[in-house]
Amino acid sequence: MSTNREIVMSGIRPTGYLHLGNYFGAMRNYVKMQDEYDCYFMVADLHSLTTHPDTKELRENVKRVFAENIACGLDPEKVAFYCQSHVHETSELYLYLNMMAYKGELEKTTTFKDKVRQQPDNVNAGLLTYPVLQTADIILHRAKYVPVGKDQEQHLEMARNFVNRFNHRYGEVFPEPFAFNFGGELVKVPSLDGTGKMSKSENQNATIYLADDDEVIRKKIMKAKTDQGPAEPNTPKPDYIENIFQLMRLVSDASTIEKFEADYNNCVIRYGDMKKQLGEDMAKFIAPISEKAAFIQNDEVYLRKVMEQGAEKARASAAKTMELVRAAMGLNYF
Ligand code: ADP
Question: Is 197 a residue of the active site?
Fold first, then answer.
């Protein structure tokens, strides 16, 4: 891959079906960045083992995540699109970084605390060191930009801390990585019940998946929480209503959004109509992606080629970085 362009890295866990949050928080930017940057995008199968140790479903999930990304416009010829476990250098770098990550800071991570609540019987060390593995993934390619959603902000801050510690202790090897959204705010796509974010493994009835058919999409949106509407002009929107507007801003055209904004401000909004419109626009947005993804997912020969070719590109970049790392650390003794 070209050496004078800036380097981008990001990943998605194969823990289930991809959803609108993954699309607008991450994949849309992957596609926008692939012509201007040297991009490394990965399917994070090792990360998924921290929460989904049973690998029976992993095989299908990995293939689907590859297929869905390509269906969204990711071009495996332009980027390195690979599977995390195919690049063994990641595990080596993870090990070195673990010596620079402190128990106290790892325990304070919001995502760790959430996971401890969600799976009290499986609070494994991988869960604790999740941000360390994520840092290894990113800096293995010495990436500077990381297209991610808002939920990853804290992990990126930790990545910068680990990088600074490494550079301070052993010499400047890594640039600081930053979460990236073309200078805009990082995206958080809310769940339809207004209780959090859309997600692969939680909140499934309140999450819209790229594989959902038109009918399912319409039904999920019609069930989104609303109320009687505002009683006075220009009332601030409650969170769950703002969520519906936010989803509309992602997929509907400007005149539709303006109409419902005006209706809201004039206290004549009919949420039934708004949700119906959103359902139509959402279904129209998702249908071509899900059709294309289903087609690609059945093409095993193509997918295998994509995976092999991606791993080769990622390994070449990883090998170069690890030579620098071992030399900086003084691990080459002769
Ligand atoms: P999930 O939380 O669904 O398991 P991952 O942890 O695999 O997703 O994250 C993959 C990418 O999708 C990350 O960049 C993450 O920030 C982004 N992402 C996940 N959920 C959302 C959401 N609801 N809104 C915006 N971005 C999201």
Answer: yes
Taken in order of first residue, the domains within the chain and their CATH numbers are 7-180+299-329 (3.40.50.620), 204-293 (1.10.240.10)
Segment 41-89, tens digit of pLDDT: 999 999 999 999 999 999 999 999 999 999 999 999 999 999 999 999 9
Catalytic residue among 63, 144, 197, 275: 197
Under-50 pLDDT residues of the chain = none
Interval between CA 134 and ligand 1 midpoint (Å):
14
SS3 call for 173 = coil
Secondary structure class of 103 (helix, strand, coil): helix
Question: What is the number of the ligand 1 atom nearest to the C-alpha of 18?
Answer: 3
The pLDDT value recorded for residue 201 is 76
Ligand 1: residue whose CA is nearest its atom 4: 200
Q: What angle (nearest 5°) sits at the alpha carbon of residue 18, between those of residues 281 and 49?
A: 165
Task: Give the Cβ contact number of residue 179 at 10 Å.
Answer: 19
H-helix or E-strand spanning residue 9:
strand 7-12
pTM for this predicted structure: 0.95
Helix (H) or strand (E) holding 138: helix 130-139
For ligand 1, the distance from its centroid to the CA atom of residue 288, given in whole angstroms, is 21
108 is catalytic: no
Q: Which pLDDT score is estimated for 245?
A: 96
Q: Rounded to the nearest whole angstrom, what is the distance from the C-alpha of residue 149 to the centroid of ligand 1?
A: 6
